[in-house]
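--- STAGE predict ---
source: upstream dedup step, 1 unique chain passed
mode: sequence only
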Amino acid sequence: MPTDRAATTALPTALRRIVGDAHVLTDPATTESYRTDWTGRWRSPESTVVVRPADTAQTAAVVAACADARVPVTPQGGNTGLVGGAQPSVSGPSVILSTRRMAGIGAVDTADRCIPVGAGAVLADVRAAARKAGLTVGVDLAARDSATIGGMVATNAGGVHVIRYGSMRAQVLGIEAVTAAGHVFRRWRPLRKDNVGYDLPGLLAGSEGTLAVITAVLVRLVVPARRTAVAVVGVNHVADAQRVVAAVEASGAPVHAAELMTATGLGLVGRAGARNPLRRDVPYAVLVECAGTPDLLAEVLDEQDRVLDAAVEPGPAHRLWAVRERHTEVIAEVSQTPVVKLDVTVPSAAMSDLVAGVERLAADLPDSPRPATPVLFGHVGDGNLHVNIVDVPRGRQDEIVDAVLRLVDALGGSISAEHGVGRAKRAWIELGRDAVDLAMMRAVKGALDPDGLFNPGAVLA
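--- STAGE serialize ---
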C-alpha cells in the first residue's frame, strides 16, 4: 500500500510519544536481532523500525499511528520462527511490533484450569507458573525458553505433545488482539463450550500476524500425569517405529509424545555431547513418553520383536529427551551452507515413503563442497516430520525445497505442519489449497485488513 510521506517522516516521533523513547529502536545495529530470523535466511531492511509497546492500549495506539501513516506492521514474539514470518520484506518503511514487553502472567484459575498471560510471556515461565498450581500447559517444545505465547498462538505451534493435547489452537480459551483499525477485540471467558457465532480466536490462531496483533491469551491448562515413563527405542524401519507407538497405545497407556530420529541425527548429537542411550547403532530410534511406570513401558517393549534395543527411564527423563531436543542446534552448527529446513506432515501410512523420497532427492544433489545430507526427525505419532538437509549448495536450495514440497503434496500431505507458511513457503501455498480455499482466505484477509497493513508478504501473496 502506498505510504503517506509526511506521516511516515513523523511516525517515529508519534511512536515515541506512545511507548517512550527507549522503546522505539531505529539504529540498525540495535535492531539487527529483530530484523534477522533464527535461521539467518530472512532479514528486514535496515530502515525497519522496532516498536515495543507495554500493553494492549499502547499496541492499539501504535497500530493506529501506523495505519494513519500507511506503514505496514509485522508482529513479532520471541523471533524463534523458521519460515521468515516475523521479518518484513517490504522495500519501503515498515515497523516490527515486538510483544516482548507484554510478558505479564496472571494468577492460575484452578477451578477452570486456565491462566491469563501477555503475548510476550515465555512458554517456560508460563509452564513454571502452572506447575506451582499442580497444572501444566498442553503444548511444549524445545524453544520453550524463548518462544512466546502470542507467537505460538499466531503460528498455531505444535511441539511434542500434540498427540496428547492438540496444537496451540486447542489451548486458547480466550484472546485479546488489536485489529488493523486499532480497535481492541477481546473474547475472554474460561469456557470449554461457548458456541456463539464464529470461532474468531480459532481464526486468529495460525494467522501468522496477518489478521491482528495478539496481545494476551487465556491459556487452557491440563492436569499432568502423576507418573510418566520415557523410552528411546531402536528399530530397523520407520514403520517399526510406528508399530512400537501403536503397541504402547494399545496397552492402555496414554501416549504423550512419539519422536522419530535417524542414525544420522543420533550420530550428530552424540558427537556434540548428548550421549546415545542405546547400546548399539540402529537405523532409526523412536522416543516414546507415556503415562505409567517404566516397568509397564518396558513390559510392552519386551513383547515387540521389532525392538533392537531400548533405554527406559521414569519421566521427565531429561537425559533421554536431550537426544531429541538437541537436534536443531546441532544441525545448524554442522552445515557449511544455510540448512534447508522444512516442516511437513503426511498421512501415517506415507511416512516411510517420505523418508525414502527425501533421501533420494538429497543423494541426487552434486557433492559441492560436501555431500548434501538429510537429517530427519519429528513427531511420528501425528505424521509431522522435520526435514533438514545440510550442505545443500546455495544455488540448488530452492530446487530441493520445491522437490520436497511437491513430494509431500503427492503423498497427500501438507507443506506446513506447525511452523506456518510465512514468506518461506508462500510460493507453494497452492499445493494442497485449491482456488476456492485460497479465495476464502483472501476474503478473510481483505475483510479484517483491507489496506494490507499487517505482515504484508506473509502467507498470501
